[in-house]
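Page 37, continued from 36.
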């Protein structure tokens, strides 16, 4: 890991090494594989762009049952804070009608995004919706929708890397870095 990275006006320091993220994804994939063993239907993974690209691709490689992939893009964050309002930047790339779906998220913070996604997918006729996230900030979560699969629980700090960005930058780092407090 780098000792620190600078993105725009902020400095970030090492937080979670790739090896720990990878082991957490192994665990999530093992649970999904166990839960889907013997299922006859083909579930859909919904990759929430852009943040979830890395997690979705790493997770998919570890799944041993058939899945279909659909993407959509929403946005709620500006800088280092959630705006509270979630807007759909790009709609679903495929139908979820009558299907069992897994929302695949990079991180769940306040839960506003997941709640909005839940409503959108229900509105589109999804048969069942489960949530799978690489990272979860339990102290920040304000909703009561169950988060079914969690890679790692983290404190309520702003992080970047492994798909997560600060105003568009930082997604490409394979390790996770946390905002340096001054
Ligand atoms: P929520 O709607 O507050 O749950 O926030 C979810 C979305 O905000 C995530 O999908 C991310 O795109 C973004 N987000 C939340 N926390 C962080 C963070 O620490 N770093 C970067 N993006 C974050
Ligand atoms: Mg996201």
């Amino acid at each position: 890991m780098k000792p620190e990275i600078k993105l725009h006006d902020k400095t970030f320091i090492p937080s979670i090494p790739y090896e720990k993220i990878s082991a957490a994804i192994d665990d999530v994939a093992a649970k999904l594989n166990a839960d889907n063993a013997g299922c006859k239907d083909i579930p859909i993974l919904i990759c929430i762009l852009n943040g979830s690209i890395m997690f979705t691709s790493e997770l998919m490689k570890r799944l041993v049952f058939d899945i279909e992939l659909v993407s959509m893009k929403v946005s709620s964050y500006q800088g280092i804070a959630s705006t509270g309002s979630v807007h759909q930047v790009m709609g679903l790339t495929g139908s979820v009608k009558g299907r069992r779906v897994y929302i695949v998220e990079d991180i769940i913070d306040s839960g506003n995004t997941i709640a909005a996604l839940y409503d959108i997918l229900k509105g589109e006729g999804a048969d069942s919706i489960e949530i799978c996230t690489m990272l979860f900030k339990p102290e920040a979560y304000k909703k009561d929708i169950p988060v079914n699969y969690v890679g790692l629980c983290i404190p309520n700090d702003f992080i970047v890397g492994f798909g997560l960005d600060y105003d568009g930058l930082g997604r490409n780092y394979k390790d996770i870095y946390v905002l340096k407090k001054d």
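Strands lie at 5-7, 10-16, 44-49, 68-78, 81-90, 100-108, 128-136, 149-153, 159-160, 176-179. Flag for discussion at group meeting. The chain has a mean pLDDT of 95.
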